[in-house]
Structure of Lipoprotein:
Amino acid sequence: MILHRGRRVVAALLLSVVLLTTACSPKTPGRFDQAQKESTQQKRGQAVAKNATQGSEFNKLFPSAGDGYQRVFTQEKKGFAEAKLKKGGKDVALLSISDTTSTPSTAAKFSKSTKKIGGYPAVEVGKTQTAILVGKYQVKALSRDSSFTASDRADWLEKFNLNGLANLK
């Protein structure tokens, strides 16, 4: 009986030593550890320029709802604002305004534009997006449904308060 008790004590001691050594040994780095370390050391909000316009300034420049359309704001942050355009309860388009101060390459794509909407250079991006450049601001309409055509996108871009946007500081 003493022998049996001794084995139990030795087994418990060995188990404790194994658990202690494995728990305290250094962990081998995983494949994502370096990326996690780099991303947490970066300054927050680094992608947005300090002088970018607050997204709340853009909201008043979006077109009003009407003609069976409903406008629902979905995102607002420094340098950007976005609204869904719904018709019959279905998302048909996304409308957005972004400050290109943080992304100068965005504004560069308008330099060779021959098309104008509302008097501003326009570009088609793929088959579902139309964008115009108003000063340093990109105004974009993105079709979410095939019923919302390129012509509809151009019409909605013209409904933005483009003069107000051009005068925004």
